[in-house]
Each structure stands twice: as structure tokens, then as C-alpha cells.
Specification:
The protein has 183 residues and is mainly beta. The chain contains no helices and 17 strands.
Length: 183
């Protein structure tokens, strides 16, 4: 089975995507024996249209098993307008010539995810609720806590995947493509 690496390269476009993790598409649900994946890996069962996320591993008697969280298949939301309230496990494609503002869910449990796949020429920004912050990686840094903080694209096709790590308040950038701006 082929597992794409975190550094895909397109010779035609000359673009190198850093930390881009693609979901694996399989004709079955993941099993506890499916342990050769990184924590946070998304698995989509293309037969039953179910989505799963690898939460972690347990070891008992020297045998390692994977803990997969079953979710539902998420159809991406294409945003033609200027604002969008995000929901847990939502996938968003902002598609507007002007800046699109998406606001994090106010209520989130540890391990829940939101994703943005940039497309519109105006770019995108993720706004926060009171007490929320986003911790970046790769030099992005963390956002200011609360409604004055935000995470924004710097290019049309910038994408990001965030996971909640402290219920309701703290999010971490799991994967990103392009340079993001934390305010």
C-alpha cells in the first residue's frame, strides 16, 4: 500500500507542500491492527462513506493496537459568501474574490478537527471566540488569546487542519500548506 509522504512535490507547478497529510481512502473500516499510521491520520471508508481519525495507541502484553475514532464522512462546504460559522469536523473551501472570515466552533472536545482548503482569490482568515487561541507550527507562532486573535492565509491556496487540544479553547495546527499569519 502506498502512503504519501509529508512533502509532496509537483514538478509542473514547482510547488512543495510542507506537512500536508492526505487521508487514506480504503474499501473498509480501519482495524485495531492498522498501526502503521501517524496519530491524527484520517481514514475514509469509501464503501460505507465513513470517516475515522487515529487517536492513539495502546499496548497490552507486548501487542500494540490502534484506537480509531469513527466519525461521519464530511462533505466539504464551499463558502461563496464572506463569513462562515465553522462546525466540528467541518471541511471548508473559501471561494470568494474578497477575504472570507470563518469563526472557530465555540464548543469543541479534545481531538475534534476543522479543516480549510484555500481556493478563493481573496484568501481566508479564521476568527476566534473568547478565550480561544491557535498554536501554530513551523514558525507561525500562536495567535493572541480571544476575539482579537486570528490565523490567516497569505496565498490563495493556503490550507490548514486544526485539532482541539484543550476543550473549547486551544487549537493546534496539525497540517498546513503555505505560510500562515498568526495575529
Amino acid at each position: 500500500m502506498f502512503q504519501p509522504s509529508g512533502a509532496l512535490y509537483s514538478a509542473n507547478a514547482g510547488i512543495k507542500f510542507e506537512n500536508l497529510e492526505l487521508p487514506t481512502l480504503q474499501p473498509r473500516a480501519p482495524q485495531p491492527t492498522d498501526i502503521l499510521w501517524p496519530i491524527g491520520k484520517r481514514w475514509i471508508d469509501i464503501v460505507d462513506l465513513q470517516s475515522y481519525t487515529l487517536l492513539g495507541f495502546t499496548t497490552l502484553g507486548g501487542t500494540q493496537t490502534a484506537i480509531w475514532d469513527a466519525g461521519s464522512y464530511t462533505v466539504p462546504t464551499v463558502i461563496a459568501g464572506l463569513t462562515q460559522q465553522m462546525i466540528i469536523n467541518g471541511v471548508y473551501i473559501p471561494n470568494n474574490a474578497a477575504l472570507v472570515t470563518m469563526t472557530l466552533p465555540a464548543v469543541a472536545s479534545v481531538g475534534q478537527i476543522v479543516q480549510v482548503v484555500g481556493f478563493g482569490a481573496g484568501g481566508w482568515i479564521i476568527a476566534q471566540n473568547a478565550l480561544q487561541t491557535i498554536h501554530g507550527n513551523g514558525g507561525t507562532g500562536s495567535t493572541t488569546i480571544g476575539v482579537t486573535g486570528s490565523l490567516a492565509s497569505t496565498g490563495r491556496y493556503n490550507s490548514v487542519e486544526l485539532m482541539n487540544v484543550v476543550a473549547n479553547t486551544d487549537w493546534v495546527v496539525m497540517n498546513q500548506s503555505g505560510t500562515l499569519t498568526a495575529v
